[in-house]
## 1
Amino acid sequence: MSKKRRFIAHAASPMANGHGAANDNIHTNPCLSCGACCAHFRVSFYCGEIAGEDGNGVPPELVSQAGPLRACMKGTETGGQRCVALRGEIGKEGIHCAIYPKRPSPCRDFPAWEADGTPNPDCQKVRAKFGLPALPHIGHDDDIDPGNTPRHRDSEAA
Ligand code: SF4
Ligand code: SF4
């Protein structure tokens, strides 16, 4: 499965003028004060990821149908809009995914950095759209969380 979310063209952001918020976690986990990818991409996935009676999976009330076997996070159907599960203000401390342990695979598979420490170019582009600073290259000794979308500080890792 591709690690990249599907890119959808969108209108310019009101924050694209470079007046984005401070990004204090940029060297540890930039996702904790970002959330840009959750307000930009169309987040679609196989419908088998939707929770069944056991409750394991993406909550069904938060998804819309995107095809015979495809689902999409509500709000992201056309791209350029916030996911319904995103809480907080883009680029600000405290932004997080309300269903972090149950988020779908495109969210789990979208990294801030590649395995070699290179910033994910798609992450960089969407951060720039919201006026957030570029991520640095990182070394193997850096104490960082590789990220992939904004968890709440109290969220169970998943
Ligand atoms: S993966 Fe990139 S765009 Fe998404 S929240 Fe983290 S830093 Fe922001
Ligand atoms: S990580 Fe959460 S808020 Fe972000 S797109 Fe995925 S489900 Fe939505």
## 2
Amino acid sequence: MGYNLLKGKKGIIFGALDERSIAWKVAEKVVEEGAEIVLTNAPVALRMGGIKELGDRLNAEIIPADVTVMEDLENLISTAKQKFGGIDFILHSVGMSPNVRKGRSYTDLNYDFFHKTVDISAMSLHRVLQTCYKQDALNDWASVVALTYIAAQRTYTGYGDMAEAKAMLESIARSFGHHYGMKKKVRVNTVSQSPTVTTAGSGVAGFDDFINNADKLSPLGNATAEECAEYCVTLFSDLTRKVTMQNLFHDGGYSSMGAAD
Ligand SMILES: NC(=O)c1ccc[n+]([C@@H]2O[C@H](COP(=O)([O-])OP(=O)(O)OC[C@H]3O[C@@H](n4cnc5c(N)ncnc54)[C@H](O)[C@@H]3O)[C@@H](O)[C@H]2O)c1
């Protein structure tokens, strides 16, 4: 049952690949809450995933965009702006490390891959925000959320160079949050989500161990993708208008724990 928290709002959802994707759940939840959306993903992901079914079901146009290609993003943002008049919220749910994918250890990184990791997983948030800024595409009090992981603050050995990408992502949210806040009262936050079984999540070495450990240590247990979607709804809604430039842990209490007996 929805609460109509996003009635009349228009948004762009990056990163729905399949029904396990966090972005998939967010897309379903924001529409249930009354929003209209555009879905986007890399052209190659659109060919693989079941996103067309999602688009049909949610009555959402799908616009391909590789987040490392400026022209793709310019086209995406201008098309969404034209369609909606202005954009009220954006979910950035994009991450990929060729080093992690190819099993390169942290002490044997390929630097071309490292560039790619940072470009796709972090710099892309800047590209999206800068494109919106230049096209004046976001409405006053719009809300931008990017998904991140606690490996930005602490060491998780299997997370590889994604840790650096997430640290940069969180920093971009703070820095752009200032500029866009001054210009249009736009808020920019990152949500640091519990480990979640998805295509990106399962690619991390030792994932099963740390998902179980996190679940045991968190007093409320790990947060699911559906719960993450619900939290994102609140951040896109008008009920959180003064929350900006924050890294918000959505992890059942895990990030505040030391040890438990
Ligand atoms: N799964 C977890 O345990 C977990 C925990 C915390 C944060 N996150 C973050 O949540 C976000 C979503 O990941 P997920 O777990 O839902 O996995 P996912 O694999 O379903 O989503 C990742 C998405 O990134 C997209 N992507 C990759 N390269 C792209 C490119 N060049 N251009 C456009 N899109 C591209 C993929 O197509 C995919 O849709 C990521 O930022 C991830 O780091 C995941």
